[in-house]
Write a structure and sequence with these properties.
Elements: E1 2-3, E2 11-12, H1 13-20, H2 55-62, H3 67-76, H4 89-107
Antiparallel strand pairs: 1-2
Amino acid sequence: MTITAPDTEPLDLADVARELLPLLEPGPELDWKLGGLCRQADPDLWYPDKGASVRDAKRVCQDCPVRDECLEWAMDTDERYGVWGGLSERERRALRRARQAAMLARAS
């Protein structure tokens, strides 16, 4: 995925991830990331251009031992970009709405 702010050069998020990930050591609350199959895959899979397929990323996620933790982290932090826990941005928005509706239903 590439983003561009006014008067700046385009920024490819996969390139940014490739540069930053080696510098970031997860703390104990993010140790699950070390077990992710995504660490062995091309970062471009997780941040496809708008309209591009997420099928390959989902295929990696389907067998990932930390898929649930990954999805919950994305939901808890309101991650809006990329594939997390096997769900696309759109699928996470739908899940968030469904969870909110369920909470409202329980509250009434």
